[in-house]
Specification:
Blueprint (H helix, E strand, L loop, with lengths): L3 E6 L27 H15 L3 E7 L8 H12 L5 E4 L8 E6 L4 E5 L14 E3 L8 E3 L6 E7 L4 E8 L11 H31 L4 E6 L9 H5 L3 H6 L24 E5 L4 E5 L2 E5 L1 H4 L3 E4 L6 H5 L1 H10 L5 E4 L1
Parallel strand pairs: 1-2, 9-10
Antiparallel strand pairs: 1-15, 2-4, 3-4, 5-8, 6-7, 8-9, 10-13, 11-12, 14-15
Length: 330
C-alpha cells in the first residue's frame, strides 16, 4: 500500500469562510491579488483533487477560536468539494488566524494528537529558554504557530509520527529604515533558528523512541536562501535535518551548487523589481528508515510535469496560493 502525504501552505485560507464555517463563494476579492473568493476556493479544491492524498498538512488553515472552528470549516469545505480527505485535526490553536491542520481520509489513516515533551524540548505550546544574542541570558521563546504532532496508524498496519511546522518568518515587517531592517532581520533569524533547534530536539526525542518520522511544512527558510547563513553558519532547515545516522532527508534540501538548478515551492511578487521571485520554503523530511521507499514531487505550475500537461491544474495552482504543494509517496 502506498501512503500519499502532502504539505501545502494555502494563503489566507481562513478568509474564505464565515464564522459558521461555511465557504464564502462570492465575487468579493480574496487575499490573492485579483482572485475572487469563489475562484480561490475552486482552485484549492482542484489542486487537492489532483493530489488525491491520503493526508494533507494544511498550513495557514482556517482559524479556531471561541467564534470559529477550523475543523468544522475544513470538513465542510471537503464535503462540498467531494474530497476523500473529509476529516480534519488541529493541534494547539494560535492567535494568528493561521492554524496548522491535517485533512485526512479516515478509511486510510487513523490519527491521534500526540504532543511531545522532554526536559530539553518543552511542549510546543510552552516556552523554550534559549540565549538568542549570546549575552549568557536565555530569552523565553514561544511559537506563534505551535507545531502539530500526530501519530498516524495506516490501514496496512504501519505507524508514522508527523510533526507539522510553520516556522517564523524572517521578513523585517515594520522596519523604519535600513538600519532597523538589518536589526529586525538578525533578530528574526535568531528566533527562527531557535525554533528550529527546539524542533530538532523533538526530532531527536522521537527518533530515540524508534518512531518512523515525517517533519513537514513551511520553514520560511532553506539552504542558501539568504546572506545571513554566513553570519549564523547554518540555515534553520539544515539544523532540523541534522547529520549522521539520525539525519532526516528531503532531496530538495540538498544545498545547491553555484549556478545549479534548484527546486522551488513558492512564488512571490517583488513590487520593487516588478517581477516574480521563486523560493524553496516548504519541505517533507523523512527519517532514515523511510527514505528508501519515499518519492517526492513539487507541484510547481511551471516546473512539474503534471501542471505542464494540464492547463486547468496550472491555473488552479497559480490562483490557489503563493505556495505549491510538496507531495510525498511512501
Amino acid at each position: 500500500m502506498t501512503f500519499r502525504f502532502a504539505t501545502w501552505n494555502i494563503e489566507w485560507f481562513d478568509r474564505l469562510f464565515d464564522d459558521a464555517g461555511q465557504p464564502v463563494r462570492t465575487d468579493d476579492p480574496s487575499a490573492r491579488y485579483q482572485i475572487t473568493k469563489a475562484r480561490q476556493l475552486s482552485a484549492i479544491a482542484g489542486v487537492m483533487k489532483a493530489i488525491d492524498a491520503d493526508a494533507i498538512l494544511v498550513i495557514e488553515a482556517p482559524d479556531t477560536s471561541h467564534r470559529r472552528s477550523g475543523r468544522a470549516a475544513l470538513e465542510e469545505f471537503a464535503r462540498q468539494a467531494g474530497l476523500r480527505t473529509r476529516r480534519a485535526m488541529l493541534g494547539f490553536a494560535n492567535h494568528t488566524r493561521q492554524e496548522i491542520a491535517l485533512l485526512y481520509d479516515p478509511d486510510r489513516v487513523t490519527l491521534h494528537h500526540a504532543p511531545g515533551e522532554s526536559r530539553d524540548a518543552p511542549r510546543f505550546d510552552g516556552t523554550f529558554g534559549f540565549d538568542l544574542d549570546t549575552d549568557l541570558r536565555a530569552e523565553q521563546l514561544v511559537w506563534s504557530k505551535p507545531p502539530l504532532e500526530v501519530d498516524l496508524d495506516l490501514a496496512d498496519g504501519r505507524s508514522l509520527h508527523l510533526i507539522g511546522v510553520h516556522a517564523k518568518s524572517k521578513a523585517a515587517h515594520g522596519a523604519e529604515d535600513a538600519a532597523d531592517e538589518m536589526r529586525l532581520n538578525i533578530l528574526n533569524r535568531r528566533k527562527q533558528l531557535a525554533q528550529c533547534i527546539w524542533l530538532r530536539r523533538r526530532v531527536d526525542q522521537r527518533l530515540a523512541e524508534g518512531r518512523s518520522l515525517i517533519v513537514a511544512g513551511d520553514f520560511n527558510d532553506g539552504p542558501g536562501l539568504d546572506r545571513f547563513e554566513t553570519l549564523f553558519g547554518r540555515s534553520g532547515v539544515e539544523i532540523v535535518l541534522g547529520d549522521g545516522p539520525l539525519a532526516l532527508f528531503d532531496p530538495a534540501a540538498i544545498p545547491p551548487r553555484i549556478g545549479g538548478a534548484t527546486p522551488r515551492t513558492a512564488r512571490f511578487w517583488d513590487n520593487a523589481g516588478k517581477r516574480y521571485l521563486n523560493a524553496l520554503l516548504d519541505f517533507a523530511m523523512v527519517s532514515t528508515d523511510l527514505r528508501a521507499t519515499a518519492g517526492w514531487r513539487i507541484l510547481h505550475p511551471h516546473d512539474s510535469a503534471e501542471a505542464l500537461a494540464d492547463a486547468d491544474l496550472r491555473a488552479d495552482l497559480l490562483d490557489a496560493s503563493d505556495h505549491f504543494p510538496v507531495v510525498l509517496n511512501l
